[in-house]
Amino acid sequence: MKDDVLILVGGEGGEGVISASEILVKAAARAGYEVYTFRTFPAEIRGGHAQMQIRVSPKEILSLGDRFDVVIAMNDEAVQLHLHEIKAGGILIYDKSEYDKASVADLKTLDPNGYIQKNNITVVMVPMTDTAGRDLKTPKSKNMVATGAICAALPCFRIDIIKEMIKQQFIKKGDLVVQTNWQALDAGVKYIQPNLKLFDSLQIGEPKSKKSKRMVTTGNIAFSLGSILAGCKYFAGYPITPASDVLEYLSVHLPKFGGNVIQTEDEISALASVLGASYAGLRAYTATSGPGFSLMQELLGFAHIAELPCVVLDVQRGGPSTGLPTKAEQSDLNIAVFGAHGDAPRIVLAPLDVPDCLQVAIKSFNLADKYQTPVIVLSEQSLAHRFEPIEWIDPSTVAIDRGKIVEEVQLNGKPRYARYDLTEDHISPRVLPGTKNYYYIMGGLEHNIYGKPGYTPEIHKTMTEKRMKKLELAREEIEKDKYYFEEFGDTNASIGIMGWGATIGSTKEAILLLKKEGISVKTLYTKVLSPLPVETIGKWLKSLDMVVVIEMNALGQFTRVLEAAFKRDFVSLTKCDGVPIKPEEIVGKVKSALALERRLV
Amino acid sequence: MKDDVLILVGGEGGEGVISASEILVKAAARAGYEVYTFRTFPAEIRGGHAQMQIRVSPKEILSLGDRFDVVIAMNDEAVQLHLHEIKAGGILIYDKSEYDKASVADLKTLDPNGYIQKNNITVVMVPMTDTAGRDLKTPKSKNMVATGAICAALPCFRIDIIKEMIKQQFIKKGDLVVQTNWQALDAGVKYIQPNLKLFDSLQIGEPKSKKSKRMVTTGNIAFSLGSILAGCKYFAGYPITPASDVLEYLSVHLPKFGGNVIQTEDEISALASVLGASYAGLRAYTATSGPGFSLMQELLGFAHIAELPCVVLDVQRGGPSTGLPTKAEQSDLNIAVFGAHGDAPRIVLAPLDVPDCLQVAIKSFNLADKYQTPVIVLSEQSLAHRFEPIEWIDPSTVAIDRGKIVEEVQLNGKPRYARYDLTEDHISPRVLPGTKNYYYIMGGLEHNIYGKPGYTPEIHKTMTEKRMKKLELAREEIEKDKYYFEEFGDTNASIGIMGWGATIGSTKEAILLLKKEGISVKTLYTKVLSPLPVETIGKWLKSLDMVVVIEMNALGQFTRVLEAAFKRDFVSLTKCDGVPIKPEEIVGKVKSALALERRLV
Amino acid sequence: MTDSASSSAHVKDKKDYRSDIDVTWCPGCGDFGVLDAVSRAFATLGLPQEKLVLVSGIGCSSRFPYFTKSYSFHTLHGRLLPSAMGIAIANPDLIVIGTGGDGDAYSIGGGHFIHACRRNPNLKYIVMDNQIYGLTKGQYSPTSDLGFVTGSTPYGSCEDPIDPISMALVFGASFVARGFSSKPKECEQLIIEAINHKGFAFLDIFSPCPTFNKVNSVKYYMQKIKPLPETHNVEDKASALTYAQDQASLFVGVFYKKERPTMQEKLADIRQKASMKPIKMEDLYSLHT
Amino acid sequence: MTDSASSSAHVKDKKDYRSDIDVTWCPGCGDFGVLDAVSRAFATLGLPQEKLVLVSGIGCSSRFPYFTKSYSFHTLHGRLLPSAMGIAIANPDLIVIGTGGDGDAYSIGGGHFIHACRRNPNLKYIVMDNQIYGLTKGQYSPTSDLGFVTGSTPYGSCEDPIDPISMALVFGASFVARGFSSKPKECEQLIIEAINHKGFAFLDIFSPCPTFNKVNSVKYYMQKIKPLPETHNVEDKASALTYAQDQASLFVGVFYKKERPTMQEKLADIRQKASMKPIKMEDLYSLHT
Ligand SMILES: Cc1ncc(C[n+]2csc(CCOP(=O)(O)OP(=O)(O)O)c2C)c(N)n1
Ligand SMILES: Cc1ncc(C[n+]2csc(CCOP(=O)(O)OP(=O)(O)O)c2C)c(N)n1
Ligand code: SF4
Ligand code: SF4
Ligand SMILES: [Mg+2]
Ligand SMILES: [Mg+2]
């Protein structure tokens, strides 16, 4: 029995690669397995390759892993792209119809036969196109033939669950549709049957405990669900890859919960209207990616000085500029932390995985309301679109903290309500428009406690301090909350790894690999990038001789932030090529850094 | 004989305070004196207080200095605001007409008489309003009565020169206008005559050497002149305080040199069109302040990846958001260095004084062209609007380096022209549209050497590296050029002060003050904030036990940059109240930091 | 007038709608007339102050909300409309009124203007049009006349001015009117009509800037303006366009007025459609299970 | 046609204007027809490739410049017009042509559209209008019909579409036309006319997106479009507006065409005015001395 199995489904965009993969993942999750996925997008609309990688295990999975046990190639391109990524002893399931038709020549250019023999790869032919098109007369069911083949080969994907899911999904379209899909599945199973023994060495164990109710979804959808749970009632956005699905998902579902969703004319308008809605009392947010986020900087500075809560989800993609719209990168940290003119620090959060996207959504609205300030959440393409199991959250357990919204104000001798009153915790009671007997000016000019513009040194100093100290308080709250920190590895290690966001899986796996080689390493990931939790990190850093910082950008943006905060050396491992970082790369970096420090014997 | 004299002219906005001051400053400069000024603006259009501070000396002046020797109050408000800023033994010249009319009551609330006696201040009454309005029947000449009074009191402002200037300025309006203004001047002189002896102790010496030809102008105008000298032929901008005068000045003068000036519909449009003009081959730029600069971040990232030269002058004002539009602050360093999404570093320069604004303009266009990248210049309100003498620059001595613009390309075996060709110095030869036989794609997507979009790891890595290494080369060039560094103080000192921009004057003066107290300090100002000249600064830092960093923002933005680069402690002196930092504040900080380190006996 | 607007009718005097902040406009600024007209309209309608939200961008005219006793939202230059839209959608009980300048509206804010008109949110928008940038001390604006000499057009503006009335009509605004600040009575009437209109009501008011625009003065407008003829049918867009584009006169009055569903109503429709059957979070979860 | 455009007439075939980059549009995408028409127009006019600068924003249609043999400037989403303006002003010898989508033009780029039209820079602007956002996979656009169901409007769009033709007319564009990509011959003719027009020439071309817009298909347009009647006077803006706002038909052809001084000409005038007497830097210096 193996610990896990890693498969890849690849084919032409539009052939149902992604929907088949989604069904497989959900079925495995329903059966109680852990699943970890990665999805890339064709760069161009037309053609292009669609693929999904799926890793399944009865135990916790930390990252995507490396080479594939099985590749299901629904067309030629998939073979060409992924053949050399199959493990020695692995299997290629290939569409026989494709092979028969056009591809032999292509395959020859690769010398696949030589490669296959040399690397001990087995090829299993399944006539996917022909079965779907010629036999079942529904070419669209090709992906179900492939799905059936996988289920037969790897029973961790339980065919009974899949059939049930298909029934649920298609019953509205009539019984015939369900039947056809089932037939396609069965055909796939049939073609594998004679070769079942080939897969013996790839089987994994049963999951131990029965899991609680789980969904399987992506980072973007998890964030959207989290925002609904948090009571968000206003979303405005402008489409942009890879954030558009937040807009689209909320368009369907937020109105069901009494919320408004608006596609605005641009990102500036989106955030401006979010701030208007927030001022009027609703929890409100927008989601975007780098180019749109750059456009929002002026308004984020406005939200900071006006002390208006708002949440901005930035789903990072490859930059700079239009950059690499469908690729994974973590290069918006600089702009998230330092992006507005003037002294306008913000709260910046970064979820580590899909379940975290949901939790961070809830946290972000609470922080924004409590500290009356903008909160930025840095997600990223690979996290945004990867499927992962995630627990059903009981809405009644979600804590909502709307902060100091009041209907009555103690004037304490003041002639009238002071929107920006100086208080012990630097947060001023907030009255919503519509409340009787109070009115005030809220705006982007420096102002006195009443909101009236004022430019004296005293006012500017006092108000700047007020706004800074709020964030200092936020930091203190954050440092106390274990949720924001993820630790892993040998607590006694003198080598540390730091990072942020979705690289954590690879880091954990690298730590396990290094342990096998006798190198003891631990890691700390902070989900808060600003205000930096200097106490928690500082304490953790103390005992460490060497700290490697992992990040997917070229400048080492997080490393610079850590250097400024702790004035010590960090070994920066930057990777900036659009592809998530792999455990092996981290292992390599740690070892070479050690060698450099001449500590390896 | 004093070393210098410091005066303030204050009055109602619109009464000619600024134009009178400008005449005084120019006259002193023409007479060979050094002059240093500071100007604040009324926050509101109507009313509000206008003032100009003028320091004059036969020797070099480092900063504005502290308390006034003479205050010329053209109205009551000026008295109220500035009375307590007059030195013991100083003089208040006051509009008798104002005093007689309405102000006694106001003055009483201040108890000025008590204050004046206690602090040994002399009041000289001059009936400015009445002389201008009643006697000369030209109320507008009130400021000339005041000017005459000052000239009589302090002959370093030479009345003959001023009369000549007035003649030049008004002769177009007819001889009568000249005569009236002269009469007003003479009247001012007359009223001081009986009190001349009062001013004996305030007189300064004659300037030693005859100076070369000098203008007196502001940072914004100096930058505009520099840009014309640099051969800029396209300017697009959107009005914003305190940068609008660049647009207005160039509107008048750039077309005379064959250039185009366009007021666009917003700042985004301004920079987009600048990039278009640059692409087509012109030197082009825009000028703005914080809010507009925030809006330009997406386009700056585009310029970075497209490798398009451009210059953006950001005249900083008080932030965040709309903030304090007419106040001095240095809080846009973060956004200038870190402001775009993705990995998109830029060249960021900061001039130290008015003559520097002209020089930096020329440098910035050369750097932009040579490295095919955006260059940001951080000026700031006090520098932008303060008058200072500046040498006439011989246009023929201005070196223009347009970088690798070519009309013929060596294809070196490539099928066609590669706009982003990989070269030894990472800079690719640039062909302008219109050139025969070449064409290429230029854009914001990641691309291969031909400009064709490409998202493979290899392309992204190679091109990111190319763009980073260019800046590394720029850093090397910069480190070699003494122009970019200003040092001052005792070279053997073990205490250092660092800073950027216009605080340098106060820093130098603080060093002189500290020296008097036996504390030996030196300073290094870098005019380049990105890429940071780490070698020059690193070498300079080596021998220092303590380094104080001076900056006019709340977050210590430059300090953080230095900490990340040098991983050592700096003492951060931040000041963020809209008023330029004074030498005394620096002295105080250095002393208290020393005390803290228990090194003061 | 929204339902809620009429509820508390005890307030009657225009002074009840003026804040205690000193007005900082120059003497003779046209905006005084607009402030007066707006306060009087509020008093006439007896609007409850706490329901009033005045929203502005940046400019002299954008200081307007400071001077009214109301909730005031002073946003960024050009962002008046999307900000106001967010407020008006979030709480449809509020009476949301945008007050700003011609630069704010048609230059940096031009893109938002298009989309506010077509979306028809229930909010009012008063532009104080002085054909100049006042606050930045006199540069030309999108409504400045061809050849106009300003700080940024020393050789005379070379750009054809835009026509806000025609624009609003073509963008689909459901209420389009023009006034002149020196005709306060008429202005008050237009403002009342705008507030009573259900939907997006756009009102361009000539409001001279004596400090930086010496050409388009009170006298100039007095000569040029002309009330729309009684015969003009306010539901006839073609006729409205013709009057807007008249070369000889600047017509004032209501050019166009025709109610259609507001954005708030349409969003309410969607919420209703979406929630036909009651929904729980668990229903969403199961979509992903 | 600018003077320079006609200079080198040896190029004659549309293939001479196609680059070697593979076209990545979906099969059946309307943009193919536009690409074909543009290449043929170039060939017919015999334009020198090196003088051609194609400028685009972001979108499927904004990939257009990749596929032509010309200088190509692929700027940010919505920034096509100010970029093109900068190029066209900096070097008036170039033939600058903007090619982009309806979202790029009327949504995020809407504010720039207003000001390009009124400034009348000598450049051409072709919008491939598919009433949808293609590249981001199907959200509604400013030209999407009311009630249209898309990824972001699952309950049907609740916003009235804009009318680009009327807008351009009201903004003051000096050339306004509409085409349909499945009528390549007519499109070519319109493009030739636009290029020959001195000033800002705006051309909205219906260019269906079969992938994400199943409603506004080739068939749909075939039924709805109608050539402008021969009797229509292209210098009559009122008539142009009437045809643009016709409820029954979508008219195609040249709505309006009337040359007036271009921005380049007006800037040249200013340069000339300013430099009547020769100037040296020293003259500037002495202003400050
Ligand atoms: C992003 C940004 N750009 C520029 C400015 C500077 N600015 C302030 S008000 C204004 C124009 C004011 O003109 P208008 O809207 O007509 O108002 P008015 O002062 O004439 O009433 C400008 C350009 C700013 N505050 N923010
Ligand atoms: C600032 C910014 N916001 C959003 C996007 C994402 N985006 C790319 S193309 C596009 C719209 C495309 O629609 P359209 O202009 O109609 O072109 P089409 O694809 O339909 O041809 C959007 C929203 C972006 N690239 N940049
Ligand atoms: S500058 Fe003009 S618009 Fe501004 S307050 Fe003065 S008169 Fe009014
Ligand atoms: S998605 Fe639509 S617009 Fe884009 S290439 Fe395909 S058919 Fe054309
Ligand atoms: Mg105005
Ligand atoms: Mg489109």
Please explain how this structure is put together.
The complex is a heterotetramer, with two copies of chain A (601 residues) and two copies of chain C (289 residues). Chain A is an alpha/beta fold and 601 residues long. In chain A, 40% of the residues lie in helices and 20% in strands. In chain A, the strands form five sheets. Chain A has a seven-stranded mixed β-sheet with strand order 9-8-10-11-13-12-21, with helices on both faces. Chain A has a six-stranded mixed β-sheet with strand order 2-3-1-4-5-6, with helices on both faces. In chain A, helix 18 links the parallel strand 19 and strand 20 (521-526). The mean pLDDT of chain A is 91. Chain C is an alpha/beta fold and 289 residues long. Helices cover 33% and strands 17% of the residues of chain C. In chain C, helix 1 crosses helix 6 and helix 4 (110-119) packs across helix 5 (164-171). Chain C has one domain: Thiamin diphosphate (ThDP)-binding fold, Pyr/PP domains (Rossmann fold, 3-Layer(aba) Sandwich). Classes of the chains: A alpha/beta (601), C alpha/beta (289). Chains in contact: A-B, A-C, A-D, B-C, B-D, C-D. Strand 17 (441-443) of chain B pairs parallel with strand 2 (71-74) of chain D, so a sheet runs across the interface. Bound molecules: thiamine diphosphate (TPP) (2 copies), iron/sulfur cluster (2 copies) and magnesium ion (2 copies). One magnesium ion binds next to helix 3 and strand 5 of chain C.
